[in-house]
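Duplicate of #3305? Posting structure anyway:
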């Protein structure tokens, strides 16, 4: 059920008492969280604390044992796998640590594919993909395959792909974890720019520098629970 508050458009994600158990292991233990339109949230915590599980819940890649996950007012638990996949493609963009590009597609085709999977024609998809690659400063690499791209270039292609369907929410899982310091700084600047034009972000990271530079709120997890939330002051 969509609430009046969700309809107002100020809440992109709402988790209510979300639990996820794998046998005797409690990966998430009663997590409640709201993410509002335009927020940039960093999620931190030790390995195994539940960060990736929580990200997968919000992305609809995993389902809670109990509790509800709503994105854009939609209760993900009411969707079957087919409808869930389509909802994810239309409303959620994802950036991964190791890029997850398709090796035998060019940069342009990797980006365009995200729109084609939602029914957009190849011509329109390629046009928007080229616009995004141009905005991200790598249009000249559009015909290059992932193996010939630098780490920073591959992550920019991955960001373009994530933005292809104008998602309400952009999820970034250790987006600078596989990059050298210079490329990592460039991706941080890109995330900041995206948030400044209104993109809602949720970033999972071990890097406090990434959190403080790119996020306005920090959510800390331990043992499957949120242990602290705090406001972050912008840094130069």
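Output from current build:
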């Amino acid at each position: 059920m969509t609430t009046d508050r969700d309809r107002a458009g100020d809440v992109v994600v709402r988790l209510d008492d979300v639990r996820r158990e794998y046998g005797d292991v409690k990966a998430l233990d009663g997590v409640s969280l709201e993410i509002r339109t335009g927020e940039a949230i960093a999620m931190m915590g030790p390995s195994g604390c539940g960060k990736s599980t929580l990200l997968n819940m919000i992305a609809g890649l995993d389902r809670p044992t109990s509790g509800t996950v709503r994105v854009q007012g939609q209760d993900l638990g009411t969707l079957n796998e087919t409808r869930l996949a389509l909802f994810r493609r239309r409303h959620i963009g994802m950036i991964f640590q190791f890029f997850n590009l398709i090796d035998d597609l060019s940069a342009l085709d990797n980006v365009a594919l995200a729109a084609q999977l939602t029914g957009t024609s190849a011509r329109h998809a390629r046009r928007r993909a080229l616009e995004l690659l141009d905005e991200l400063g790598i249009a000249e690499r559009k015909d290059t395959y992932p193996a010939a791209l630098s780490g920073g270039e591959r992550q920019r292609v991955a960001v373009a792909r994530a933005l292809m369907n104008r998602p309400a929410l952009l999820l970034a899982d250790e987006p600078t974890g596989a990059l050298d310091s210079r490329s990592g700084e460039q991706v941080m600047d890109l995330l900041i720019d995206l948030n400044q034009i209104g993109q809602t972000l949720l970033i999972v990271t071990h890097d406090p520098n990434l959190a403080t530079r790119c996020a306005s709120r920090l959510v800390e997890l331990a043992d499957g629970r949120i242990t602290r939330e705090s406001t972050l002051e912008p840094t130069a």
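Confirmed duplicate; merging threads. The beta strands are 11-22, 25-36, 40-44, 66-71, 74-75, 92-95, 169-173, 200-204, 217-222, 225-231. The two ends are 42 Å apart (CA to CA).
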